[in-house]
Please model this.
Amino acid sequence: MHEFLDQYLNCLFVEKGCSRNTLDAYGRDLNGYLAFARKSGCAVLREISPDVVMAYLAERKKAGLSASSVNRALAAVRGFHHYLLREGIVERNPLVHIERAKVWMRLPGTLNREEMNNLLAQPVLDSDAGMRDRAMLELMYATGLRASELINLKMNDISWQVGFLSTMGKGGKGRIVPIGQCACDCLRRYVEKSRPGLIRGRQSDLLFLNRSGQKLTRQGFWKIVKKYALKAGLGKKVHPHTFRHSFATHLLEGGADLRSVQMMLGHADVSTTQIYTHITRERLKDVHRKYHPRS
Model:
């Protein structure tokens, strides 16, 4: 069974351009699924029945996984069986009549504009690292990039004259996003004054570098965000994706249309972007409750 799993993961990498993180997550879910199927008496893939799939999902839920995590595991299993059916490895798909678990909407955490301005002001610009950090935070808020997209930016991904950057998102899908004057100024200052001190004569086409002139890791960037969030005294959890959530929310609050925000975020489906409209509605309700005399 694992031979076909390796083939499927390779297919995801080659045909769909899935990232290493996505492949690792799918691999973990599907290895657990196949182990459960073997424990349930399935020696080969064609012996897996709808009851086995349902029992696996129930076991995942019993283990304490949230509905969204169960759905992620279900998506991995569904995709795997679709591949097996397409390749003629099995003759039926045991997930045909299995639906997703119900997921109650959880609104993503955001910062308001005052909190964001406070956070962006924290890096001290008297060092190479400080100028780099300010440029990274400004760019995250200006563009809504994912952390992985930020640390993988190359020097030639920035179009200085027109104020845009190009990035490669999930599934290998490229998009172009405007930077904005403030972020562009911080970025130019970093490239001209700070980056040479970090790269120290080495050769690298990466835009952002660590103190050793090497590529920043996602964990390293997360620590940078956490440091400045604590320094700003915001009193709430802030992580790299908070910039993305705040970017989308502030655009919609300012009157941006949903389709434009979808394109800048790189969402394949507009329904993913629509969650931010719920955030703005919740804020309107808060204002109404606070200020209306009969609320």
In short: The chain has two domains: 2-86, 113-290.
